[in-house]
Amino acid sequence: MSQKFRTEKDTLGEYPVPWDAWYGIQTARAVENFPISGRRPDTDFIIAHARIKRAAAAVNESAGALEPRLARAIIDAADAVIAGKYHDEFIVDRFQAGAGTSHNMNTNEVIANLANVALGGKKGEYKPVHPNDHVNMGQSTNDTVPTAIRLAAVAKLPRLLAAVSGMADEFETIARREANTVKSGRTHLQDAVPTTIGREFAAYAWILRRGAHQLRATLPWLCETGLGGSAAGTGLNTVPGYAAHVAEELARLTGEPIRPADNLAAQMQSMHDLQQLSGAIRALAIELTRIANDLRLLASGPRTGFAEIELPAVQPGSSIMPGKVNPVMFEMLNQVCYQVLGQDHAIAIMTQAGQLELNVMMPALGSALFDALDWLTHAIDAVTKKGLHGLKVDRDRCRELAHTSLGLATLLNTSIGYSAAAEVAKESERSGRPVRDIVAEKGLMTTDAFDRLVERAAIEGNITPARR
Predict the structure, then answer these.
(1) Helices (H), 323-407
(2) Which CATH superfamily is domain 5-137 in?
(3) Where are the domains of the chain?
(4) Tens digit of pLDDT for each residue in 413-448?
(5) Do 162 and 215 form a contact (C-beta atoms < 8 A)?
(6) pTM score, two decimals?
(7) Where are the beta strands (DSSP E) in 178-295?
């Protein structure tokens, strides 16, 4: 059965639109123009843009610029989109017309058609509600799209923060449980002084909480919008007080402290605040990569590696080697973090690509930012649930490696000096005998006393100088 079409007309002429579509002619043109990624708009972005249309209609009605029955129809249509309906009608590819004009018109057309049908009209006729004249009243792609990107980021950020907090909590749980589990420290991937699993994992938690603090610090800037600047930051065609009132309405709708930027033109020209958020995400991804690699090292083996920890087995590790189990959750986290670094690089380049009154890279910039936020959130959640929860520490293995480490010779520095301690380390390396046995042989202290020294050094850090 062939698809039925209706014919709509715009400034370029006539064009077919699917008969049952809630979108209109400009959306249909964009679908043909941009068959690029096959990826439709981000859900939070769709909702954010609909909230802007709703807020604008309310403010324009209050100012007497928009007839109440039209405003109510627009508000009801926007509410339906905000509630999650009609999202399959937002079909413009993420790579599209510069600045996001195609998506703005997709939103305008869907809301206009919904409003008109509710008022007894027909799809595609745009009477009495017109996409440009009424749904887009007092607005421009140039101020609505960057505002929608910021609102979508504000919606996503708490999810990422919750994921980071959950991972930090899990690290802290392990840290408390293993506070006295002595192990060999390693610097340059070589034996170093003793430490504890608890100290290592508590450090991971602290780093993650610092990263969350840096992310959270970007929120006030994201809540400053250029909405009301219209096409070039002048406020052309907006009702008096529009910028302040529409920000108040958005604050009410989102529960966030949305406010107009002091300079609307600057907030339309510059994507600096979005780049700062991306930079904080990048910093977190870098730390997560390092932590993931640490855990892969600590779990290496189980016979020929460190094998100090055992990660939960979530799937067989090899199609050819029976019984092999790989650290797949942390491998996945590494892959996501590398992708996030790439998104940040793209965002940085697109941020500087703005020209004069507008940054036309906004659709791709927003998409890259949304991906980074969502991917990292999902990856952290998955790793916490399937990679950290259920992690086991092999305390015997930790103790074995700690007490055979050449780094233990460092504990002798305060009693026999660096040079003499270095000779003990060299002798241990040449002979393969533990430092503790050589210490006892030389009469420096008994093996039991040395073991206690190791434990105290690892747990407390400060030790009383050893005596002969």
Answers:
(1) 328-352, 362-383, 395-404
(2) Fumarase/aspartase (N-terminal domain) (1.10.275.10)
(3) 5-137, 144-393, 405-460
(4) 877 788 877 888 788 888 888 888 888 888 887 888
(5) no
(6) 0.93
(7) 182-187, 190-196, 224-225, 259-260
